[in-house]
Design brief:
By secondary structure, the protein is mainly β. It has 4 helices and 26 strands. The strands form 6 sheets. Strands 11, 12, 17, 18, 19, 20, 21 and 22 form an 8-stranded mixed beta sheet that branches. A 7-stranded mixed beta sheet has the order 16-15-14-9-8-23-26. The chain has a 4-stranded antiparallel beta sheet with strand order 3-2-5-6. The protein is globular, with a radius of gyration of 27 Å. The N and C termini lie far apart (about 100 Å).
């Protein structure tokens, strides 16, 4: 009978032990993958729109891995074999005017969007995610350029926010009168910067503003032709090399309107501050200030670290306010979501989604200026979708991540 000597036995046992250890190490090193199952549904206004055959996209925010797939007839899209990470999920569907008319009675194009950010499935987990697709008709008036970060004015550091402006564009085929249009600087001002706290104010029915402006006029004083825009400057001063405050960024003396908070404060018995309240330019018409929870020396400005703005119309004066339960401060004016024509959400950075100030129907996502926006001279500009007869048609999918790009400001 064949016999194994002791050395052979030891060799075999050692080999078996090494194989066991190697197998154990492989099991310990094995990464359990996850999956995400996304189920789409339509908002009430679009309940007759099919949920099948819609692209759903996921983005791993840690390594920028992207994947997309179509929903099945039940509106379900599944992503498997996903490594650990935090995922942003989005879906989008363009509706024709006929589809929108059948659902809402409005004969216009609409882009439906659904988003869910910060999804982190556990290892080995199949995580369910529900997305509600909603959208608003493409706006006839749009925010074209928003210079909220402002530039540097070395001679007057306290005025570094005074060269801000917002440009509003007629994206329709009809003459539109700007008279009575409201422009709101939305709050909470939190944009994901420094020690900001996350607001818990609900966004389904109302937006919240700390400062609101209104274009003056009796209804037919300020016609805006198709493809034309008008500009509201925080202060209508030339901040360029040859201007009043040189080495700045923009010539706001070309603006159509400016914010003159000095006169507004004085009319209410409040004291203006010659440093904080930049001088009025009599050649630029004052825009009406309709809401401004002010104090002595208060001054109007957009959040330079990430601003959110809305343009809207209402027939009656808005008076209802609310105090933020998480970030106590000034009372915010409540603006009905149903009155909003266009709105944009620009935050401090890519990880600031929790600080959004707009519901998905108005802005499905958000945008930002990498590295921060304050005093950089960078501006947010809406993309051109197409040009018809020499007139630019601006992109309006109600998703600022798609519709806007940042760059050096464009002098209007």
């Amino acid at each position: 009978m064949f016999r194994l000597n002791s050395l052979t036995i030891k060799t075999i046992l050692m080999s078996m032990l090494l194989a066991f250890v190697a197998s154990s190490c492989e099991k310990e090193d094995e990464v359990l993958l996850s999956s995400i199952t996304v189920t789409l549904s339509m908002a009430d206004d679009y309940s007759d729109i099919p949920v099948g055959n819609i692209y759903v996209k996921i983005l791993n925010t840690q390594d920028n891995y992207e994947d997309s797939t179509l929903t099945n007839i039940s509106g379900v899209a599944t992503f498997t074999d996903l490594p650990p990470g935090t995922y942003n999920i989005s879906a989008s569907k363009e509706l024709t005017p006929d589809q929108v008319f059948n659902s809402t009675g409005y004969n216009v194009e609409v882009t439906l969007n659904g988003t869910s950010d910060g999804i982190s499935p556990l290892p080995g987990q199949d995580m369910p995610v529900s997305l509600v697709m909603d959208g608003r008709p493409a706006g006839s008036l749009l925010i074209k350029q928003f210079f909220y970060g402002a530039g540097k004015v070395p001679q007057l550091p306290l005025l570094l926010l005074k060269d801000q402006f917002i440009e509003i564009y007629n994206n329709s085929e009809e003459v539109i009168y700007a008279d009575g249009l409201y422009i709101a600087a939305l709050t909470p001002r939190n944009a994901g910067f420094a020690n900001d706290l996350i607001s818990e104010l609900p966004l389904e029915e109302f937006l919240y503003a700390e400062q609101v402006l209104r274009v003056p006029g009796d209804g037919d004083d300020y016609p805006l032709e198709p493809g034309e825009s008008f500009v509201v400057a925080v202060n209508g001063i030339d901040f360029t090399e040859n201007g009043t405050y040189p080495n700045g960024t923009v010539d706001n003396s070309r603006a159509d309107f400016e914010v003159n908070e000095t006169a507004w404060l004085q009319e209410r018995g409040l004291i203006s501050n010659p440093v904080l309240n930049a001088p009025d330019n009599p050649d630029v018409e004052d825009i009406d200030i309709v809401y401004f929870w002010a104090h002595n020396g208060a001054f109007f400005y957009f959040n330079a670290d990430g601003a959110s703005a809305a343009i809207f119309r209402v027939d009656e004066e808005l008076t209802e306010t609310v105090i933020d339960p998480i970030v106590p401060g000034y009372p915010y004016l409540k603006i009905p979501v149903s009155s909003v024509i266009d709105a944009v959400d620009f935050l401090h950075g890519e990880d600031a989604v929790a600080y959004k100030r707009l519901p998905t129907a108005l802005d499905a996502s958000y945008n930002y200026i990498p590295g921060g926006s304050r005093s950089t001279g960078k501006s947010m500009m809406r993309k051109v979708a197409r040009t018809v007869g020499g007139r630019d048609i601006l992109m309006d999918t109600n998703n600022s991540a798609n519709d806007f790009e940042y760059g050096e400001l464009v002098q209007y």
